[in-house]
Design a protein that fits this description.
CATH class: Alpha Beta
CATH superfamily: P-loop containing nucleotide triphosphate hydrolases
Strand order of the largest sheet: 2-3-1-4-5
CATH architecture: 3-Layer(aba) Sandwich
Number of helices: 10
Shape: globular
Largest sheet: 5 strands, parallel
Distance between the termini: 35 Å
Strand content: 5-15%
Length: 228
Amino acid sequence: MKQICVIGLTGQTGAGKSSVSKIIRSQGIAVIDCDEVSREVVANEKCCLADLALEFSIAILNMDGTLNRKRLGEIVFNDSKKLERLNALIFPYIRSYLKEKIEQFEAQGEKVVVLDAPTLFESGIDADCDFVISVIAPEPLRLNRIVVRDHLTDEEARRRIASQHNDAYYTSRSQIVIVNDKDQQELHVKTLELVGVIHRAIREQCSCDPMSGKGAAAAAPDKRESAG
């Protein structure tokens, strides 16, 4: 029987998911960065890299045989069908790798682990989670954030946002939603409240899901209301 609580954390680009992840990690909760896992999978799983080269040509490889992520991104991010194909190829490797990482944390005695995954739902990883937290934000705020963060033009940022799912996609699939529509201090407070709920649920040895009644349920933000 599984002895570790697995929490999925996801959200739109520019919504603040990474900030929430950092705050959670700072509070002593184990966090797995699924972007980093994806890079490790491509670097270490030669079968995965071979699958990608067969699908998208050897043009995606550097001279030393490693993946040229920039070139691959240029191919897939403006073509939804190619992006879907990329995801179909790489997600099974990622899920298998994540399972091993979770088992390692469980063996170390961790009671909870958070999967920081921008494509949590698309990859099917949410099926491996006890519950899911999504971070969303108004589009104008997201646009400004990613222009500054990623040094994009306004048009490039708009195209990236347009390629992603809307708020309803996340809110309908999550047990908890954090609305990051103010400043970093407000986001910090909201996240610490959530961490408190998680710790309380674990201490009281009730269900990992903070929506599930005993102990922490009354303190947990309902997804229909959002933590906003």
